[in-house]
Design goal:
The protein has 573 residues and is an alpha/beta fold. It has three domains: 234 residues, Vaccinia Virus protein VP39 (Rossmann fold); 35 residues, no CATH class; 200 residues, no CATH class. It has twelve helices and 23 strands. The strands form five sheets. Strands 12, 13, 14, 16, 17, 18, 19, 21, 22 and 23 form a ten-stranded mixed β-sheet that branches. The chain has a seven-stranded mixed β-sheet with strand order 3-2-1-4-5-9-8, sandwiched between helices. A two-stranded antiparallel ribbon has the order 6-7. Strand 1, helix 1 and strand 2 form a beta-alpha-beta unit. The protein is globular, with a radius of gyration of 27 Å.
């Protein structure tokens, strides 16, 4: 990695990043100030190693934050900025009814210690918005017996006294927010003005809708400033639109068919795939289109939307991509040794290649996302995500998958309206309004090879089973007694600029760590697969670090709005 050049810290103020993890906030601080972070503290060895690989000029402390003495660490120098991102898992609503740890919930108390000893000019804190409900914990009680529930799930015996460390502790709803208010008062008593807001990363240029509470405290008399959004979900004239998840996805990476897997996908996942295909492909007036070269929510979003929040759990990731690929079907398979079912995807921002008279080399992918690992409430629709919007919160294991449905052109001939100059962007090929709709059996007589027709009918059976109403779903392997072949093919037919395409396969894969880091706003040059000493990180470790990281564009906006290196001159000793 090429070490960036930073301004020398001649003002004698240090920049400190507590709970530094893999370096998301340090990256934000460096982008905002033009200086490297002086001190980074984290208890996780792998996190420190990733941080050191990307921030070699920083002094790293691989310790518990309470084991680091502020005076010794700073060597007598003043602190201009102290940032804290304490563990959020024991505040987050994602933890549900699981036991809470008073120690982990209390990590933010490191702030008064630094403020009382080093008096940093600016203090920032990032966490989930539920930290506003930070309060005392109480023992969970059995609803029937009213006795204490232990961590192992058993109920205390009559008259048994359960030690606190063995109790299943949960937040006391009657005292919600009491500890947070005490925390804020402790900073105010030290002479700090304190404010906080809940900010969405997508509003500041990161393709993720991750929302976090940011607290800013300062003691230098300067006003606390909150950054103005730079991107908008529904932009007015002259404003920038939210960046999309599609920007972060490498559509050239093939997925795996959802059919005939060694380990079948869970029904909940299949319902989400079907919901996403129906909502964002078949019923969409403007499906998300990706060009490829041939083909060999609940929980579902469009690839045009920002990615949802990346979190550190569950392991392995929870974002996947579903992409229907539309291939011209009327031209056969080519020579026996050169089938058209191969891959060669282009970036969605690149122009479409020239369409030849034979139609070879041109195919389209319709992208959507499906959320993995989370269930739906009773009556809740499957999690459907639009790839054109930012990705939601990325958890440490990743919860999003990419889905790709392969479709064949069904009219058996070449439609000249698809031909275009190679310099034209792909977006001009997408359908709008009445140009895209489901067709009835009488609207098109598909000309498909037997293999293509078999794939299309299988996709139709899948959609009927997992998107059908009234519970009459049936087995995918059984024939549908109430539908003709034409009806079934019409169910999976999409019109694009007057040309019909038929879905013949649906593929799904998990998003890669690099795609998740890109969705969180990290630069492409950020090292995520190895540490400073050459150690290699597993994919689950990479995703965990991403889930624990602050999106750099969001952190940069907050620091940039408040950082001012022009401090009063100090009298020499």
């Amino acid at each position: 990695m090429k070490t960036p050049q930073f301004i020398l810290g001649l003002d004698d103020e240090q920049l400190v990043d507590e709970f530094a993890c893999g370096g998301g906030m340090s990256e934000a601080i460096e982008q905002a100030t033009g200086r490297h972070v002086d001190i980074a503290v984290n208890h996780d060895e792998d996190a420190c190693s990733m941080h050191a690989a990307n921030h070699p000029q920083t002094e790293h402390h691989w310790k518990d934050v309470f084991e680091v003495c502020p005076r010794k660490a700073t060597k007598g120098r003043a602190v201009g900025l102290l940032h804290l991102s304490p563990d959020c898992t024991h505040h987050s609503q994602a933890r549900g009814g699981q036991p809470r740890s008073k120690k982990l919930r209390g990590l933010a108390w490191i702030a008064p210690r630094w403020c009382g000893t080093k008096r940093p000019r600016i203090v920032t804190l990032e966490n989930v918005k539920q930290i506003l409900q930070w309060g005392p914990l109480i023992a969970k009680r059995c609803p029937k017996t009213k006795r204490v529930v232990k961590i192992d799930g058993t109920v205390a015996a009559v008259g048994e006294r359960v030690p606190v460390q063995e109790q299943h502790l949960i937040p006391d709803p009657k005292r919600a927010g009491k500890t947070w208010r005490a925390f804020v008062r402790s900073l105010e008593r030290l002479g700090y003005a304190v404010e906080w807001r809940i900010l969405c990363a997508a509003d500041y240029g990161a393709p993720t809708t991750r929302s976090r509470l940011f607290m800013v405290a300062r003691c230098d008399g300067a006003p606390i400033v909150w950054p103005e959004p730079t991107h908008f979900k529904n932009p007015a004239k002259g404003q920038k639109r939210w960046r999309s998840a599609a920007e972060c996805i490498d559509w050239s990476i093939p997925g795996k068919s959802i059919f005939e897997r060694d380990k079948p996908l869970a029904d909940a996942t299949l319902r989400r795939v079907a919901h996403g295909m129906k909502r964002y492909v078949l019923d969409s007036a403007d499906p998300f289109i990706v060009q490829i070269a041939n083909w060999s929510r609940d929980g579902v979003t469009s690839a045009r939307d920002p990615l949802s929040t990346v979190t550190a759990w569950p392991r392995g990731g929870s974002h996947a991509v579903v992409a229907p690929v539309m291939v011209q079907a009327g031209h056969g398979q080519g020579t026996p040794d050169a089938p058209r079912w191969s891959y060669g995807a282009k970036d969605v921002r690149d122009p479409v290649g020239t369409v030849t008279a034979s139609g070879g080399g041109q195919a389209l992918a319709v992208g959507t996302l499906v959320q993995m690992g989370y269930g739906e409430r009773e009556g809740q629709a499957p999690r459907a995500l639009d790839a054109r919007q930012p990705l939601g919160t990325v958890v440490g294991a990743g919860k999003f998958a990419a889905v790709t449905a392969f479709v064949e052109q069904a009219n058996g001939g070449f439609n000249a309206t698809l031909a275009r100059d190679a310099r034209e962007p792909l977006s001009t090929s997408t359908a709008t309004g009445s140009q895209q709709r489901l067709v009835t059996a009488t609207m098109v007589e598909p000309t498909l090879t037997p293999d293509q027709e078999e794939g299309a009918l299988r996709c139709a059976a899948f959609l009927i089973r997992y998107y059908g109403q009234g519970g009459q779903l049936g087995d995918l392997r059984e024939p549908m007694s109430t539908s003709t072949t034409k009806d079934r093919l019409a169910l999976v037919t999409v019109w694009l600029r007057g040309t019909p395409y038929v879905i013949v396969d649906i593929q799904l894969r998990m998003l890669t760590p690099r795609e998740l880091y890109s969705a969180n706003g990290f630069p492409k040059t950020y090292i995520i697969d190895r540490g400073h000493d050459g150690r290699l990180f597993s994919k689950s470790t990479q995703v965990r670090m991403c889930g624990n990281a602050v999106p750099p564009p969001l952190g940069k906006a907050v620091i940039e709005a408040n950082w001012n290196s022009k401090v009063p001159m100090r009298k020499a000793a």
